[in-house]
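Changelog note: in this version the structure field was regenerated for every chain. One regenerated record is shown below for reference.
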Amino acid sequence: LTGGLADYILISTPYSRICVVLDLETTGLSPKKDAITEIGGVRFQITDGKLKVLDTFQSFVNPHRGIPYFI
């Protein structure tokens, strides 16, 4: 994790903290007509400005529909 929010977290956290970041992939951008195809997560600890990955998770999700070619 580098850049943007990761840099802010590393700079502004003077103590140990455990965080989780989730990422969803979908069949499109509409929450009404599109569906989730994949979910991923990273659990990490920040101590004294240093980031340590504790665990990761990734799973495909059946969207029960076709997935567009551009996805």
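Spot check on this record: The CA atoms of residues 26 and 36 lie 4 Å apart. Strands lie at 17-26, 36-47, 50-60.
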